[in-house]
Amino acid sequence: xxxxxxxxxxxxxxxxxxxxxxxxxxxxxxxxxxxxxxxxxxxxxxxxxxxxxxxxxxxxxxxxxxxxxxxxxxxxxxxxxxxxxxxxxxxxxxxxxxxxxxxxxxxxxxxxxxxxxxxxxxxxxxxxxxxxxxxxxxxxxxxxxxxxxxxxxxxxxxxxxxxxxxxxxxxxxxxxxxxxxxxxxx
Length: 186
Description:
Blueprint: H1 3-11, H2 16-37, H3 40-57, H4 66-89, H5 94-103, H6 114-131, H7 134-144, H8 150-157, H9 161-181
Helix pairs in contact: 1-2, 2-3, 2-4, 3-4, 6-9, 7-9, 8-9
């Protein structure tokens, strides 16, 4: 079923919307959640919570791209769950490492003007990603959106871990430079 019809099911408050969403995007949402949580059970709970959030958000919201909408919800829920779980057990994993890597080129969000700055940063990030070569963009997104390990990325793209690490380092450096040119404090 196409996305427009699925969204219409949500707007009509038909429970079939959840069934169709699960059928079309269940595996994708699970992948997003599992990439962060590394637990099938926790990922499945986040996916189910994603369906509930989508149900509550549509209407009034009408997403332009259902997959992106669901992916963002799933990612945010998964990060929140990870944060809660890590506070409980202080486990090691990709998320602290990924966040540390990005900390060197992304500004601290504690300032009063952070909401406006967030919008500006989103725009800069879109432009930054568009300017990257395809492979570099895919590697960057895999690492910082899906939170894949360097080893997983290397294996997927047939590269060495060192090549992936260097690619990510250079991309972060370019992002930092671009943010600084736009007067974003890093």
